[in-house]
Amino acid sequence: MSQLDDRNSTTMTTRLNEGCGPLDLPKRLITVRRAISGHIVFTTSFGIEDQAIAHAIFTEGLEIDVVTFDTARLFAETLEVWADTERRYGRQIRGLSPNRESVESLVGRDGVYGFRRSIEARLACCALRKVEPLGRALAGASAWICGLRADQSPERAQTSYACFDPRHRVVKVNPLFDWTRGRVVAFVHDHGVPYNALHDRGFLSIGCAPCTRAVGRGEPERTGRWWWEQEEKTECGCHAGHPAWRPNPAQ
Ligand code: SF4
Fold first, then answer.
1. Ligand 1 atom closest to residue 207's alpha carbon, by position in its atom list
2. What's the CA gap between 157 and 167, in Å, rounded?
3. In which band, very low, low, confident or very high, does the pLDDT at 247 lie, cut at 50, 70 and 90?
4. Could you tell me which of 46, 43, 42 has the C-alpha nearest to residue 199?
5. Which of 55, 75, 128, 250 would be a feasible disulfide site paired with 193, CB 3.0-4.6 Å?
6. What pTM value is reported for the model?
């Protein structure tokens, strides 16, 4: 069960938002850990923002559960940076796999690349490989830390530092919400943080391999995600309202 009720959450998010401005990344995370009791979860996809946050969590020795979604569709380069990160910091990153029966049922129904047929099919795939594991990761948690930045896309423009996530009933904290990509890249280089080699090949935002491509110079950061869809469909469902996928009972 979540440690915070609605009133406590509102007070907490107000306090965190008011105090975050002058703090650097490690101090933001230290403040969050001190302010919020109970289980705190950081979900990483090993993108460059997440690597900066992981560095701060690990070097400060913060008691924050670091979790990733092992969708079974990740790039080999992503698995490499996962292993490099564990080696560098001596901390384990917990991988959550999708439910096997659900995957078999969906692939049996839609085909191995069925997610390219329609937005609904794609959301169904993201629902079982990411959204359902996210629910498991956050069960009983008080807070959820993410690597969202407000200038990544129009959908993320309203990203704040701390807010209440009513779906998971946790305080959601985006410690890089006001950072630019350039600032994140500089942080990672300055601190020698391991990062995904695909970033050097034009992949700005990295998700599952079949759903991510490199972007051209000047293209928006998230253009390479689900590029065959309309521009406004650049989220997997973890950060917005999302229909739960259920296995087809006929399969
Ligand atoms: S990003 Fe693609 S492969 Fe990964 S869960 Fe979503 S639709 Fe499926």
1. 1
2. 20
3. very low
4. 46
5. 55
6. 0.91
